[in-house]
Amino acid sequence: MVVKKDQMLIIGDVGFKGRPGVTRQVDIGYGIVASERKRGYAFEATKGLINWAFLSDKVDYITAKSLILNIDSIQILKKLSFSEVSRDMEMISWSLAKPGLN
What we know:
Elements: E1 2-4, E2 9-16, E3 25-32, H1 41-53, E4 61-67, H2 71-79, E5 83-87, E6 91-97
Parallel strand pairs: 3-4
Antiparallel strand pairs: 1-2, 2-3, 4-6, 5-6
C-alpha cells in the first residue's frame, strides 16, 4: 500500500504479480488514486520496490505493462530506466535488467 504519511491515508498500491520463476523475472504493477497522481508517489514507491527486488538473488529482470494511451505510466517507466520490449494496439511491454547484468 502507498500511504500518504501526513494523513495516514491509503492513496494507492504497488506490488509484484507473483513470484520470480525460472526466468528470474517478476512483473510489477502500481496504481495511485486520481486525486494524488503526478506528485511522485508512484515513482517513489515503484523505485523502492525495484531496489528491494534486485537485492534478491532470484530476480534478474523486472517487467511491466502499460496501456499505450497511459502517458503518465509510460513516463514513470522511462524515468525508472525500463526499456520497451514490444507493443500491440493496446499495451506496451517493458523490461528492466538488474544492474551489472550483460
